[in-house]
Design a protein that fits this description.
alpha+beta; Nucleotidyltransferase, domain 5; Actin, Chain A, domain 4; 3 domains; six-stranded mixed beta sheet; 20 strands; 20% strand; globular
């Protein structure tokens, strides 16, 4: 947990995979898994959020997720996780004395919005609440770092989806916002299927294989070239699976040590073309039957739907956020493919923040100190007088 002073505003970037949570005065947030987990080794206990770090055996975990397909569907799970996060065991937040900056999904359903308003004001009793989208906070943070840029295109590659969101003068172009139904969850599931078919049954090992994907996969800059290398198996790497006794998380061996033969007590997976073929789904979703454009084509399509005078500026300020943006080669591939699609006279600049996972949270923390925060937020008094309509009038979600 970051050691810093406690401010009056709490910032919660509420992702489907993880919560990025902390006071606006902190330099970085706590990242807490947005899930409740059961383990076969400890059947009498459930692990809420980051309590999973206390679990001794992380094999065959069962996840209870509040979010399905990017939207909040199980309120009981989410409230349990929030209660734990706000409670003394975790961040110890005195919610009635705090303001809240909260992110929710794009195009959120009205029934979910109403439920969130009720929880924040009636259950947790926050003083003021500002609800927004991760892209809005990313745009705000980007404007602080690059005040000369009038436009910004946010590519948010998260757990459930990838969103392409254009901003002109700080305002989202709603009718041009697009979603691709590919995210980290789908990539991990696809990797599980491939490994289970070719080598070892890992369909129940979501936690382990998600770590494997993070440690091994990269985005190819030349798919045909890498495929030729993979056929010769000179680029194969061994991934050592954890045994949860001596090794809690698996790791990928160096090229020199990857000979396909496990050492004593080791269990390995031989990673070959899976390393770059799985992330390729982000660029060709049709490879697994999702009839949608890949990220670069969607970027070009989104920009083409924005006013003509803004297109030049959108191409030269593309910001990558979300967990998938951390994959090696992701930024370079986006830049390469978008450059081929963009008009020759336009400059293409793709920016990758130092920490793409917490970048939106950092924007929320900065916004909390802006005098405009009071104008943007809904007070508890407003909500008591007009109910959820006060939120609808303010946010236009």
């Amino acid at each position: 947990m970051p050691v810093a002073s406690v401010s009056s505003t709490f910032v919660l970037d509420n992702g489907a995979c993880s919560l990025k949570a902390g006071y606006s005065s902190w330099s970085s947030p706590n990242v807490i898994p947005n899930s409740i987990t059961k383990a076969k080794s400890e059947k009498r206990r459930i692990f809420i959020g980051n309590q999973i770090d206390e679990c001794r055996d992380l094999s065959s975990l069962y996840f209870m997720l509040p979010f399905q397909k990017g939207y909040l569907t199980n309120w009981d799970y989410q409230k349990q996780i929030w209660d734990y996060m706000y409670g003394k065991q975790c961040l110890n937040v005195d919610t009635p004395s705090k303001n809240l900056v909260f992110t929710e999904p794009y195009f959120n359903f009205l029934s979910i919005q109403e439920g969130l308003s009720e929880l924040f004001f009636e259950e947790y009793r926050f003083k003021n609440v500002f609800r927004t989208h991760p892209g809005d906070l990313t745009c705000y943070k980007n404007k602080m770092e690059h005040p000369e840029e009038p436009c910004c295109l946010v590519v948010d590659s998260g757990y459930s989806f990838t969103h392409i969101v254009p901003y002109v003068d700080g305002k989202r172009v709603r009718n041009a916002t697009k979603r691709i139904d590919v995210g980290g969850k789908l990539l991990t599931n696809h990797l599980k299927e491939i490994i289970s078919y070719r080598q070892l049954h890992v369909m129940d090992e979501t936690y382990v294989m998600n770590a494997c994907r993070e440690d091994c996969c990269y985005v190819s800059l030349d798919f045909e070239r890498d495929l030729t290398k993979a056929e010769s198996r000179t680029e194969s790497r061994d991934y050592v699976l954890p045994d949860f006794t001596n090794l809690r998380r698996g790791f990928m061996k160096s090229p020199e040590a990857s000979n396909g033969r496990p050492e004593d007590s080791e269990q390995i997976i031989r990673m070959n073309n899976e390393r770059f073929a799985v992330p390729e789904i982000l660029f060709h979703p049709s490879d697994i039957g999702i009839q949608q454009m890949g990220i670069p084509e969607t970027i070009a399509h989104v920009i083409s739907e924005c006013p003509e005078e803004t297109q030049r500026w959108l191409y030269q300020n593309i910001v990558l956020t979300g967990g998938l943006a951390k994959m090696p080669g992701f930024r370079e591939r986006i830049l390469k493919d978008v450059r081929e699609l963009a008009p020759n006279e336009f400059k293409v600049i793709v920016r990758l923040p130092e920490d793409p996972i917490s970048y939106a949270w950092q924007g929320g923390a900065a916004l909390a100190d802006d005098p405009i925060f009071r104008e943007l937020s809904v007070s508890k008094l407003d909500y008591q007088e007009r109910g959820h309509q006060a939120c609808v009038d303010k946010y236009y979600l």
